[in-house]
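Provenance

Sequences were taken from public entries as deposited. Structures were produced by running a predictor on each sequence independently, with no templates supplied. The record for Protein Abitram from Iconisemion striatum is shown for reference.
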Amino acid sequence: MDNVEQKTTNEEAPSVIDRYFTRWYRADMKGKPCEDHCILQHSNRLCVITLAETHPVLQKGRTIKSISYQISNGCSRLNNKVSGKSKRGGQFVTDFAPLCRITCSDDTQYTIYSCIRGRLLEVNEVILETPSLLLEKPSTEGYIAVILPKFEESKTITENLLRREEFEEIVSKRGPTQPP
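Predicted structure for Protein Abitram:
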């Protein structure tokens, strides 16, 4: 047994995200170049909204000045209170509903959208205190929000979204220029 070389399973084991979630993408959100969003869909219908790796916020040299879930004077995503098995009280969002606004250190503002229709279950309040999580771990601790699509719409919500291969094809056609 001493002579048998053990394989390192860390290199071969898929991450939790890759194992339990399907990645979907929305490229050039609302016609804005490179403002790409990623939706992680779990088999139980829950969708986690994150930034795609190509989003300008995640590009080299960017730092986040602030993140705000205050969408308008009368609408704050932080006021979202959900209770019970059927998630009563959660705000209903459409696929172009703004979830938050991110301001970078160069005062560039980016609005992050829900990308899918459903009930807003949770926003990530941790990134308000630690915005660097959004840069360091955008698919895990740096997520934006969790949305639960209606049961009857759960199969059709991905119709307007791109699979990873389709998204990578769009990104490759953009060329080597960096987003603003």
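The longest strand covers residues 98-104.
The CA atoms of residues 99 and 113 lie 5 Å apart.
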